[in-house]
Structure formats: C-alpha cells, structure tokens
Design brief:
The protein has helices spanning 3-16, 18-40, 64-67, 93-105, 137-162, and strands at residues 45-46, 56-62, 71-78, 83-90, 112-113, 122-130. By secondary structure, it is an alpha+beta fold. The chain has one domain (3-162). The protein has a 6-stranded antiparallel β-sheet with strand order 1-2-3-4-6-5. It starts with a helix and ends in a 7-residue tail after the last helix.
C-alpha cells in the first residue's frame, strides 16, 4: 500500500470513531493508573506518561532499589501484542546490556529475558492482561500492581546477591 492508501484508510477508520474511543480508553486508564502509583508509592519516583504512536503507551516506576542501579519498571500497553505488560528496563543501553548479561549469566528463569537489540527497551517482559481487561479497571489495576510487585520482589534479592554494587545517580 502507498502512503496515500494508508492515509485514506486512516481517515475512513477515524470517521467511524471507534479508534478514538479505544485509544482514549487506553490512554485515560494509563493516566489514571500513573496517578494511582504516584499516590500509593511514596518512595517511588513515577515518570510522565508516554502516549506513543500506536507502538506503546507507558510510564516508568523507579523504586529506590532499582533506581540506584539505573534500572526501572515500566507499566506498558503494547499495541502489537494488544496487552498490558510490566517491563524491567534501564536508564541507557549500556546498563540494559549489563543487566541482561547479569541475568542471563546467572541463570535467571523467572521471567522472559528480552535480548538487547536496536529499538528494544525491555530487559524482562511480564505479561499481565489483554486489552479487554479494561472492561474491569479495578481488577486490571490490581493485576498490574500484583505483577509489578512480584517482579520487584523477585529482582531485589537477585540483584542484592549478584549485583551488590549500585550505580551512582
């Protein structure tokens, strides 16, 4: 298809209104979830919301135990998988590779490791729920909180044991 064909198709779909409603529901939920984390996790830093370009919508969480290592958790809606996920990510590509190698070299198997590559931001991806879970936002929020805390609870002792040196801010 040409760009003109793609634009015509986008215009047609936008005229129906369902794209705007669905995208608005995803971004609105993620915005509310971000505020929820800001209110409930006092010691964590919470980033702004990245709305994305139909690739992902996300915000980052910086628990002190990860932030000191240049790591973060990301609550992500991935448009390709059409699902909510929690990721472990890093401040930069060097730290991303270092953390990935640490996890790989010490036999990490609790969550799926994502091999570093161009335009890959995740070190670990943990699936939470598909987009249709938006129909019950309270349950979805609980599932995301549980998945986020479980990932952090699994990472902290591993990092304490295998990566005692913390990266300077």
């Amino acid at each position: 298809m040409s760009l003109g064909d793609d634009l015509t198709e986008l215009q047609r779909q936008l005229s129906e209104g369902s794209l705007q409603r669905a995208y608005g529901a995803i971004v609105g939920y993620m915005s509310q979830l971000r505020v929820h984390y800001t209110r409930t996790q006092g010691q964590w830093t919470v980033s702004g919301l990245y709305q994305g370009y139909f690739d992902m919508t996300y915000f980052a969480l910086f628990p002190p135990s990860l932030k000191s290592r240049g790591l973060k958790l990301a609550v992500v809606f991935d448009y390709e998988s059409f699902a909510f996920e929690v990721w472990l990510a890093a401040r930069n590509r060097t730290l991303q590779r270092r953390c990935w190698e640490l996890l790989r070299d010490h036999g990490w198997s609790k969550y799926r490791l994502v091999e570093p590559a161009t335009s890959v931001d995740a070190i670990i991806k943990s699936g939470v729920a598909d987009a249709f879970a938006l129909a019950e936002p309270e349950i979805l929020t609980s599932r995301i909180e549980t998945a986020t805390q479980a990932l952090l609870d699994d990472l902290e002792p591993f990092l304490t044991l295998h990566d005692p040196q913390q990266v300077a801010h």
